[in-house]
Amino acid sequence: MHPAVFLVAFFSTVGIAAFTVVKVARLFAIRRELPSPDVPARLEELERGVQSLQQELAETQERLDFAERLLSKAREERRIGT
Q: Does residue 50 sit in the same domain as residue 66?
């Protein structure tokens, strides 16, 4: 067998084997990155937390609007009264 033919056959075999090993390694890496079983519970907890924060923000905005109306009314009364 000529050395050139041997080298082509050798590198082809090694290349296919290396390609296969890399593909299998990537598959195992992806499997390890799958979310843990407690992810849905944690996601629901985060959603509840966000809803709670949204409710608190809405209440704070209502209080701010009320305070702004009171301040505006007081300014109008002072301006009209003087």
A: yes
Q: 48 and 68: one domain?
A: yes
Buried residues in 27-54 as b, exposed as e (16+ CB within 10 A):
eeeeeeeeeeeeeeeeeeeeeeeeeeee
- Number of domains the chain contains: 2
Task: Please tell me the predicted confidence (pLDDT) of residue 70.
Answer: 92
15-49 pLDDT, tens digit per residue, is 888 888 888 888 877 766 667 788 888 999 999 99
By residue range, what is the domain housing residue 1?
1-34
Distance CA 8, CA 14 (A): 10
| pTM (2 d.p.) | 0.50
Q: Do 67 and 29 reside in the same domain of the chain?
A: no
